[in-house]
Amino acid sequence: MIGLNLVYAVAGIVFAVFSLLSARDRRFANAAFYALITASFLFGNRLGDVANGVLVLALIGIAASGRMRRAEAVEPAEDRHRAKVFVPALIIPAVALMGTLAFKHATTLIDPKQATLVALTLGTLIALILCGVLLRAQPAEPFVAGRGLIDDIGWVAVMPQMLASLGAVFALAGVGGVVGELVGAVIPAGSVIGAVLAYALGMALFTIVMGNAFAAFPVMAAAVGVPILIRQMGADPAIVAAVGMLAGFCGTLMTPMAANFNLLPAALLGLRDKYAVIRAQVPTALPLLVFNILLLYGMIA
Amino acid sequence: MWVLAGIVVIAGGFLLRFHPLLVIIVSAFVTGLAAGLDPVRIVATFGHAFNETRYVTAIYMVLPVIGLLERRGLQARARALVAGLRGATAGRLLTGYLLFRQVTAALGLTSVAGPAQTVRPLVAPMAEAAAERQGGTADDAERVKAMAAATDTVGLFFGEDIFLAVGSILLMKGVLEGYGILLEPFQLSIWAIPTAIAAFVIHGTRLWWLDRRLSRGGAR
């Protein structure tokens, strides 16, 4: 069945080419970093947990050595292809969209859980071919250009994966339970607004720390949501769960721990301030958090 | 209680601007050791989770296409397109994109757009070009680009939970089931709608405000 195996094979090959191009230009730290990511994509499942962990340590070692270099500056491009240049750019989301819908009916061929990622991979491959056919690009040209982009992103590229892995260690160590007990202990008995505030702010704060509302939800549900809001105060479980999760999402907007949503776009857009995207999100996140608290309180009280 | 030391390491390490990846791995070791795990187990747990979350990093496969198109004038073309649209402002463009992102995410199409797929090649240069025409400065360009990325995230977060089969809905259903509370995904997704509307109103207002500041001779 086609699923993540295809996605990871293509991603692995792309990083392998990035690595070769970096080595050719004598940018060895970058080459080694991309080679390790290639190994993770192509052989990760065969390596075993400890070897994968050692691979991660090596990635961190290279990143922390400070030897990875940014891309050389490129001259701004001219508008020489007119609207034709949009075709490969739009084909990626278009194929991702159509593939997601179509693959739902091809469940024997394609893993339905990974339909969008498979479609996105397919769209990328079609776009690459169109770059050659429509824009007369040489085969190596996209990869040289792409290497420039990944060099500018640098080690931030693996930060989301690193934070997710830290979350796994937190979970194993029982961090959630301890935080839940602390939050549960501060609520005045019988106070609806106190319980709502502890639950919603707890979701947001714990998400800020963990970078992920998914990690916060089981903890806050166990500490406040189920025992106090649902069982003691008789709140509708659907509202408590749904609005609590969205309060957590408000926290995600405000934390560097959610690197893939907050730091990665800043790196990708080449912003001078790496926290610029978070700064742009906080004024939306705070009023929305207040809205969620009021919604929850209004539906319980 | 000692397992919380890892959180202190993360917060302190980021604040003191140590290398973020070093801070993460040190936090993992501090937390794991405080919980009595042996170092090999910590490395293995970390490595296992890293391997399981590779799909996050797979999105970079689009970079060769995006990079090539940029060198062939994609952003210049996006700017030219905006210049030809009368009445296109940074705020209006981003409001349209916010709506598009919320609606597609609500239909389960979360990976159709994103920072790499749409924001860098299309949305950010278009918004930047519009802002320039509105009288924005170089500092405004940075702010508008950041706002483009922020709009993408807000649209995704407060659209996706309306879709029935998204991860967070399944997580909520699963967690509550553990307490003997049975819910249909539909009951959960319907309660994502009020917040989705609030998100559109709040962020849309901020985008309208952005336009006002731009046309007043530059955002502060």
Structure description:
Chain A: Keywords: Membrane, Transmembrane, Transmembrane helix. The complex is a heterodimer of chains A (301) and B (220). The longest helix of chain A is centred in the last third of the chain and has 25 residues, at 276-300. The mean pLDDT of chain A is 90. Chain A folds into two domains: 4-73 and 82-155, no CATH class; 174-300. Chain A starts with a helix and ends with a helix. Chain A contains 13 helices and no strands. Chain A has 301 residues and is an all-alpha fold. The radius of gyration of chain A is 23 Å and the shape is elongated. In chain A, helix 4 runs antiparallel to helix 5 (115-135), helix 9 (192-210) packs across helix 11 and helix 10 (213-232) packs antiparallel against helix 11. In chain B, helix 6 packs parallel to helix 8 and helix 7 (115-133) crosses helix 8. Chain B is an all-alpha fold. In chain B, 72% of the residues lie in helices and 0% in strands. The radius of gyration of chain B is 22 Å and the shape is globular. Chain B has eleven helices and no strands. The N and C termini of chain B lie far apart (44 Å). The mean pLDDT of chain B is 89. Chain B has helices at residues 5-15, 20-34, 39-52, 63-71, 74-83, 90-106, 115-133, 138-160, 167-177, 185-190, 193-215. Chain B has a domain at 73-218. Chains A and B meet through helix 1, helix 2, helix 3, helix 4 and helix 5 of A and helix 1, helix 2, helix 3, helix 4 and helix 5 of B.
